[in-house]
Amino acid sequence: MFLLQFKDTQLLESSAGQLSVSIATMRVINEFVSHPRVSDPSELLRPEVQFADKDLQAFRDYSVDESNPLKERVRLTYLHMHTNQTVEFVKDRMGHWLQFNTCKAAIMDALVRLNDLVDESDPDADIPNIVHAFQTAERIRADFPQDDWFHLTGLIHDLGKVMAFYNEPQWAVVGDTFPVGCAWADSIVYRNTSFNENPDGQDPRYNTKYGMYSARCGLENVLMSWGHDEYLYRVLTHNKCKLPEKALYMIRFHSFYPWHTGGDYDYLCSKKDLDMKQHVLTFNKYDLYTKSSKVPDIEGLKPYYQTLIDKYIPGELEW
Question: Of 81, 103, 186, 267, which is most buried by a Cβ count within 10 Å?
Fold first, then answer.
């Protein structure tokens, strides 16, 4: 049993109990189990071949098919995101979340919360996020056995998604990120159809190539769409974690696909950002290509990862 202390209330969980939270703006799985239930693999958007049974070309398929419930769920998530993620909105969310007074929880307890979240922006998986966390970490561990910091980075990279349990809609938690305050790049998913109602597109301060930024200003000076990447990065730095800087870059920008995969926005990057991009790309192949129906032995793996948590991010964190 563990207790997460909320800002205004409390949530109690046990192995025999059910979750007491129910939020209409997100999709959660309400039954708490030690080995999360996984959707029937035949119902996933695509089977995997090379990385956990799936052809590489099949990942990140954002084609529109209104008859496909999973694809439509993803499209609508991005439509809400691209309509509402404005400079004003991001500043508001930062003002709210970066007070770090929402809850206090240890890393492993926060991970267990992801047992109940399915990312509605993800076309590659329809499984609880905790499964993806251990899939990613274990694949990294197999290829980089000596880099324990990298194993832990894979495990925790999506922990910022806990915002979804505190009334944040999924379009402000999950999905690809992009800079606000400047023109939207062509490589952003659904770029041609989903930004039509975003008011920043009509604001001359924000709708040019550089917008409110300058060339090579550095990503640390760029306001990103609000989501789990930036939130977890801020939580970790606020709580003085001991992960190396390249791990923090991986966490902060792993969802910034228009940059690290689409080839856009280098004109906003400093030399340091461009040097760090390779680390983000290395992480990305484990984040993306490990999504499958294969469920790791989460309970059996917890003791190993708890030792890494104790080494790099010990104790109770302020969220």
Answer: 81
